[in-house]
Design a protein that fits this description.
mainly alpha; 260 residues
């Protein structure tokens, strides 16, 4: 029976309805089925998929209160749930709790921590997490670099993401479509049409096909560049109109001065 409930929890998680999850858990307990480690892990993942961060954290705490050992797996699922919903504070608390329990984090845990910073562009916190990972001797992968890049925005963002690109290549890693998507994002935000074109050409040279997210980035970049081009043309048109009016205004001003 527990195995069947675990499967149903996984399916309900994909449905994205926290109330259905709560109802199924209550039914499970009414049937006298005690949740096991797999049950709790499935519940945490399901609540995360349903964007119910508090449900995921509550389940993790309940698991610990029932004497079940929390491992890197449960923490990883909980971190992913919080990261998916941009809850950086909860991710930071989970990482601290791992240290308290002596659970060694791996690159995936730090990737979730950095991902949680992206929604609010918490570049400083993401960079601190990346540096902490390096201090612990944990080798970053391209996903970790992409998570860090996703937190970078504002003036100089394009150069900072390019520095990450050079760094990951220095580690023998190759950028994938998601990393190029972040490059496109910051290039578009900077209004750098040339950089956008160079990035797309480089992707083509390296045989990297855009995925759904990269296609979205490409479309967004194109829209931003089109808007910027329209604004440039509009400003030029207004300037030309102003220049044409100037010669007409000067004779009128001279006549007024003569009358005075």
């Amino acid at each position: 029976p527990v195995h069947a409930y675990n499967l149903m929890l996984a399916m309900l998680g994909r449905a994205g309805d926290p109330q259905l999850l709560d109802d199924l858990v209550q039914e499970m307990r009414a049937d006298g089925c005690a949740p096991d480690t797999i049950t709790y892990t499935s519940m945490i993942a399901a609540y995360g998929a349903a964007s119910d961060v508090q449900g995921a954290l509550r389940t993790l705490a309940e698991m610990e209160s029932h004497g079940l050992a929390l491992t890197e797996v449960e923490f990883g699922v909980a971190l992913a749930a919080c990261a998916r919903n941009g809850d950086h504070e909860s991710c930071a608390r989970l990482m601290a709790r791992m240290d308290e329990l002596g659970v060694a984090p791996h690159v995936g845990h730090f990737t979730s921590l950095m991902t949680s910073c992206a929604r609010r562009s918490l570049e400083g916190q993401a960079k601190a997490a990346f540096e902490d990972m390096l201090r612990r001797g944990i080798e970053p992968d391209v996903v970790a670099y992409t998570s860090l890049a996703s937190c970078i925005s504002g003036p100089g963002a394009l150069e900072r993401v390019r520095e990450l690109l050079a760094e990951l290549r220095g580690r023998g890693l190759l950028p994938h479509a998601y990393f190029y998507g972040e490059l496109l994002r910051v290039a578009a935000e900077a209004g750098d049409r040339g950089a956008c074109e160079e990035i797309l050409e480089e992707m083509q040279r390296n045989g990297i096909r855009p995925n759904a997210r990269t296609e979205f980035r490409i479309q967004r970049a194109q829209r931003l560049l089109e808007d910027q081009e329209w604004q440039r043309q509009e400003e030029q048109r207004q300037h030309q109109q102003h220049e044409r009016r100037q010669p007409q205004q000067q004779p009128q001003q001279q006549q007024q001065q003569q009358l005075q």
